[in-house]
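Mods, move this if it's the wrong board.
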Amino acid sequence: MLITITKKPGPTGMGTGTDAGGSRWKVAQQCLYKYYNKYERNGTGITKGTGSNWKAVRGSAVHESLCWLYNVLNGQLPPGLPEGVYPETFDTSNTKHIGMIFEISLAMGMQVIKNSTFEPEFEEDLKKQLAITIDRYMEHYQDELFNPKDDGLKVEQTEIYIESDILHKRYTARLDLIGKYGDVPIIGDHKTTGMHWSIYQKGLKRDLSLMGYVYNARKKYNIPYQMLINGIHFKSTKVFDVDFQRDLITYSDYHMEEFEKSLGKIHSDIDCCKENNEWPQNGESCMSHMVECEYYGLCNNPETEFSYEAKPSL
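Not the wrong board. Structure tokens:
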């Protein structure tokens, strides 16, 4: 397959949508006090108080590398590359050219690591894990990437922002990719996790964020999109290993109506909290799959001004 670079360099770095489809409201669904601390307090939210940040950085770096892998395959290079180093046409039957595509996508993920704040002792492991992940991803899906057929994933665009009004509130959803999986039009979402995939995938069908992505895209383009989960499963952090899993989640019109109703209830709850100046804490969300909420150390420590027990002035 020949790939001619015809598109101008695109933006670098992962952006953040206002509501990212439904993730802002999913936080309110989990715990209204967490929502208050993250989105309402002083208008800007607060710094997370606990938990390891390096795994989040790893996820962001993988997202960025995959974004640029597919961008290059669609004929777009990132800005800032040295002139004359990369060809104007990539030949995917040429192993040297495939190595260059790997080099470009890896460099964009490395830039995320460089620009992020996390525990410094994890830096070298992060870089190694990113390189292994992208290398194995390209090997695992090599036929689909470099000799595409009709039954695989075909990426049309990456990092798409969609703005829409839902229930009189403005949404900005950031989609990882839009394309087709076989003949099914899909929104693609890269999911990185260390959790066993059979456990992780159970909650995805009703995930408010995923439903929000599909809802926004259908509303914007009038195309019956479904959701493709492009899963990257980190099986171990000590002896690093990674595998890949994809799941196609289908939504009917009923699911989209259900999303609207769920969103309406969450909006009502938030409006009620604002009116009464009370933001209830949901203790059941403090731990999820044996992992602390990132705000646990703040709102459960009575010595901090953000403690729920300390009842700060809201």
